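Quick one, T. Sequence first:
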Amino acid sequence: MSAVPERESAAPPVVVLLPGQGSQYPGMLRGLYGTEPVFTRVLDEVFGRLGDEGARVRADWLGDTPAVPLDDVRRAQPLLFGLDVALGTLLASWGVRPAAYLGHSAGEYAAAVLAGIMSLDDAVDVLAARVESLAGAPPGGMVAVAASAAQVAGRLTPRVVVAAVNAPTQVMLAGPDPDLGEVTARLTEDGTPWMPAKATAGYHSPSVADACAATVPAYRRISLRPPHTPVVSGYTGRELGEPLVRDPRFWAMQPSRPVHFGAALGHLLGADGPLGPGPFLVVEAGPGQGLSAIARRHPAVARGAGTVVPLSAVRAGAEHDRAQLAEAARRLLPAADPARVPAAARTGAGHVPDSSGPARFSP
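Structure tokens:
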């Protein structure tokens, strides 16, 4: 038997989690750009495909005084997409073969590229249309609430809704201004803990539905294919398949629909799920460790059936970026091809110290 099949049979299945809006933080993952060739190549492809706007996105990401704030959809969405795909591609370059992808919000769009549903070029072209349309959505926001969906139900309105259910007592609400502010004021009166998310519109609420609908024609112009690797959707809680995977409206309307990440993760890691009872490796391929924190609280992981491996640090700085990637590479060697994991990635060598930045918001 060859070395590769022996490695595959011995290694636990790998689940790749891809974060979305809210995981961004200033300086995120800049320490890998220019030092990790695969990571750099993918990002340059994304920036190049976006043309002049891509050059501006890159300049704002790498600079300390961005012309457009990071939380603006014109920066957050292209960067989160590019970083997710770049880290996912880097993981594959090490010989890691994911058993499934699960994205949170915009992370599902990155999963579509990594799983072969869309080509990178098609995805970036539609991303440009998506960002332009969402930039015109009504001002609003999102908040994370330490409560269950049932507990906040009495505070919801037709315009302020549950945007995401990440865990049994961790939900996000979203809506336009000033409606969202009125709801959070009542939460404060109730003594319900909440905190603002990094969003400038009410994503995953009806307030962005018109902006999403305007992008349906763009999705109709691209090729959509069944995935070569299973994708568990945060919108359905199950594996994507026909006919939904080829439905342009399904992809176009995602930013206006609620995310059921907790249910999707529960399906994926459950004893009766596609991976069985474990063991398995859960890898977060994107900025920060927000999804890793959620995954660590999942019962399967808590009982020791899963190991969570984030590829990103929780704060900015080349030292942090390289050290975290090196730690992840060492922990992933059972599922990787050692000959394909560069020594620099395993040791964290070759990085340049940088200043630390603030920790990211945990979705």
